Please model this.
Amino acid sequence: MKQSIAVRPAALAIAAAIAIAAYPLTSSADGDSQSQIQRGYQINPVPLNLAGKNRALVGLGSYIVNTGGCNDCHTSPSYATGGNPFLGEPEQINTAVFLAGGQRFGPFVSANLTPDALGHPAGLTFDEFKTLLRTGHDPDAAIGTPPLQVMPWPAFGKKTDRDLRAIYEYLSAIPSLPDNPPPPPGP
Model:
């Protein structure tokens, strides 16, 4: 009996290893990506310029941006009149200023993420964008400036290079808008 108890865990470990090795991780991951890409296009609230863009990355980027709360801080106000889900209204994103910044957080104001005249989201190259999301350091800020205080860059910095590239590709495909002026500081 003692021998059969010792054999069972070993047999279970071998069976588990075979099952894990036989599980098609690549097709599942591809299926998940395809599902996220498709969903990204479904939930995108604005017209996209797909000329010269990687369509799969744009869709994935839309999925990440539009499920990641970016609109909550980078669109002010976030929802169109009558479209605030927090008030029990059917959700309607404020597309007139979608991701054009202007949300005030005390002394901080969210940045405009829309593409500049060169097509660079927030006016940043991909390398600058990736560095900002990984370190919180704005390349346009003065040397010695502390990292961004409101932006959840520690969470975004954990994303894969592909995820960050997808976010960048999506942001480069949305309409370019002027900076959205923030409301005056409160009392």
Q: What stands out?
A: Residues 1-28 have pLDDT under 50 and may be disordered. The longest strand covers residues 104-105.
